[in-house]
Design brief:
Layout (H helix, E strand, L loop, with lengths): L5 H18 L6 H11 L15 H16 L5 H12 L3 H45 L4 H6 L8 H12 L3 H8 L7 H12 L3 H52 L4 H7 L1 H29 L4
Helix pairs in contact: 1-10, 4-5, 5-10, 7-8, 8-9, 9-10, 10-12, 11-12
């Protein structure tokens, strides 16, 4: 008895088309949108994943699985490799998925470090505005710095608050905290503190200028990245075209997975195509990051 495969292949083709549509969505200025969302939902608490229309125990298990998947997203390569291996009748896709796990982990770690860097930069800008406003309202410099929002700066910020509260070397603590990626603006805050701590008004003006300069630099970088997002989107779309071609060939009955995974010519084409695909993505990413002024 022959099992029809048109429906699964059609589903895979529709999924690929949806992925391409998501990849080529119009570029947005993510930094500004995220800041607007944080201000809008600042006091509403974290919202976890909810899976409706399921029995309570099954829903809890699915939510736990989704939470674990968010923590180790690179492991989703393995189920994807298993699915392709079952469709192609080969263990090679699973081995390729296992080899892709460390690469995906490295990429996700780089994105996480970049998010932390952006968060520290935003915190320094908010800190400058908060301390300057408190100084103009009549607070002492140490008191204003001690209550400033700086939790995103991590443990070094605790040393800054301790120095501000107990009369320590505040500029030195600020410079040490400014050694973190994204918190370089604290070195400017330390310089302002060192030359103007005896006069609160002068310190407030200096902090406002530092905050304005940091915000202008951030906005300029975000505008540049928004302009470069078209290049990045084009690269992702071109990278997805071979996958879409394989799915369309399968839907038409050509069975390209059998040729790629079970013939010497297909294995050679698969190896060469995979290498060129990876090299093209890396090359495009380096060009975009160099144009955007991002560090590797």
């Amino acid at each position: 008895m022959t099992i029809p495969v048109a429906a699964p292949q059609t589903l895979l083709t529709a999924t690929a088309l949806l992925g391409v549509a998501v990849a080529v969505r119009p570029p947005v200025r993510r930094g500004r949108e995220l800041r607007r969302a944080r201000r809008l939902f600042a006091d509403r608490g974290a919202v976890g994943a909810r899976v409706p229309l399921l029995p309570p125990r099954l829903r809890e298990a699915v939510e736990r699985l989704l939470a674990a998947g968010r923590g180790r997203r690179e492991l989703w390569c393995l189920p994807a490799g298993c699915a392709v291996g079952l469709l192609g009748g080969s263990v090679l896709p699973l081995l390729m998925a296992g080899a892709a796990v460390p690469l995906v982990r490295r990429r996700l770690a780089a994105r996480r470090r970049q998010r932390e860097r952006d968060q520290r930069e935003e915190t320094v800008i908010e800190l400058c505005g908060s301390v300057a406003g408190d100084l103009r309202a009549g607070r002492q410099p140490g008191e204003a710095l001690a209550v400033a929002p700086g939790d995103a700066l991590g443990p070094p910020w605790q040393a800054v608050m301790a120095a501000a509260r107990f009369g320590g070397d505040v500029p030195a603590a600020l410079r040490e905290a400014g050694g973190q990626p994204g918190a370089e603006g604290l070195t400017g805050v330390a310089a302002c503190w060192q030359v103007a701590v005896d006069g609160g008004a002068g310190l407030a003006a200096g902090l406002e200028r530092v905050g304005t300069a940091l915000a202008a630099d951030r906005d300029q970088r975000e505008d540049l990245l928004a302009q470069l997002s078209g290049t990045r989107t084009t690269a992702v779309m071109l990278a997805l075209l071979p996958v879409l071609a394989l799915l369309m060939g399968s839907a038409l009955g050509a069975d390209p997975l059998r040729v790629l995974l079970h013939t010497p010519a297909g294995l050679g084409c698969l190896a060469l195509g995979g290498f060129l695909e990876y090299a093209g993505l890396v090359w495009t990413r380096r060009i975009v990051r160099a144009a955007g002024g991002r560090e590797e």
